[in-house]
Amino acid sequence: MAISLRLSRGGAKKRPYYRIVAADSRAPRDGKYLEQIGTYNPVLAKEDPARVKLVEDRVRYWLGVGAQPTDRVHRFLHNAGILERAATVNAKKGEPGANAKARAEDKAKKIADAEEAAKAAEEEAKAAAAAPAAEEAPAAEEAPAGEEEAAG
Hints:
Elements (H helix, E strand, L loop, with lengths): L2 E10 L2 E10 L10 E6 L11 E3 L1 H9 L3 E2 L1 H10 L17 H54 L1
């Protein structure tokens, strides 16, 4: 029989309250347990000493007979100084997910396209401002040529 130190949920809806228990690992989460070794009330402030209460000698006993704590209970035991927990390093913690990266790339592409369109419009405006002066002279020459053809 594998024994685990884990949380068993109680309390009302939206008002959780947990017992820290030693239980058979195959038993249901809120089912039968061997012994209650503490409590955890997540509703209380993090600084409140009543948030996590442990019966230290019973915790040490269960660890001594081979009980394995879950990750959350292991954190409680580490904070209480009962059991050391190796520091974990999550290299991808601050990195955005794949969908967020795709959205950022799309946004950057749209901004770049908008900047290109603005530059193209600006160049067209400059070309249009320079072109009418050049186009007026040939247009004036063409009108008399058209009149001569109509007359002759």
